[in-house]
Amino acid sequence: MELSDVVADIAQALVAIDSSHAPFKSFQPGVGPYGEPQLLRAVVQHMNTLPAYDGTARTQRTPDLLLPRRWSIEVKLARPFGDNGKEAENWSVNLLHPYEGSTSLIGDCLKLEKLDGSERKAAVVVGYEHTPPQIRLAPLLRAFEVVATDVVGLKISHRQQIVRTGLVHPVHQQLTVAAWELLGRVV
Q1: Are 129 and 167 in contact (CB under 8 A)?
Q2: If we measure between CA atoms, which residue out of 73, 59, 62 comes closest to residue 126?
Q3: What's the pTM value of the predicted model, to 2 decimals?
Q4: 177/9 Cα distance (integer angstroms)
Q5: In three state form, how does the secondary structure of 135-146 look?
Q6: What is d(CA 128, CA 23) in angstroms, rounded to the nearest whole number?
Q7: Residue 154: left if φ>0, alpha if ψ -120 to 50, beta else—which one?
Q8: pLDDT classification of 100: cutoffs 50, 70, 90
Q9: CB burial string 134-151: b at 16+ within 10 A, e below
Q10: How does pLDDT run across 8-50, given as a tens digit for each residue?
């Protein structure tokens, strides 16, 4: 199973969650406001209905998403705007803080690098934007790539990415699922 397949299945799961119109807590309906743990549980529940996963996908502390014998995946959310339509503070820090032990995607990549197991390792971003974007995710995704490779010294694959539009939330109107395979460290 290639990373592009996993990205497509995550995007499919997110669209299915969104189309249910089920609100998360007291937020407006749609997938955008879900917290990371709750979102991952719902994504895994959907993925486990697909024959390719045969009920084996699961969430855990590290990695966030485990596809046994296939992929260990860390996931971060990127939302430039909150449910209320106001610009979120510090929303990009979730990806870029370049220190071991941090809860950023970079920190998670460093944890994954040390993780034992036969699974391939990947970092995934689930991001939400307006249609058309008021604040584009593309510069943040590129910044992640630069910090991961040029600052931290990680080797990552070419980005796999899928965009889905037409979400039900009035602020989180489209989603992007972006992913990179971790290929080791630059020596």
Answers
A1: no
A2: 73
A3: 0.96
A4: 10
A5: CCCHHHHHHHHH
A6: 16
A7: beta
A8: confident
A9: ebebeebbeebbebbeee
A10: 999 999 999 999 998 899 999 999 999 999 999 999 999 999 9
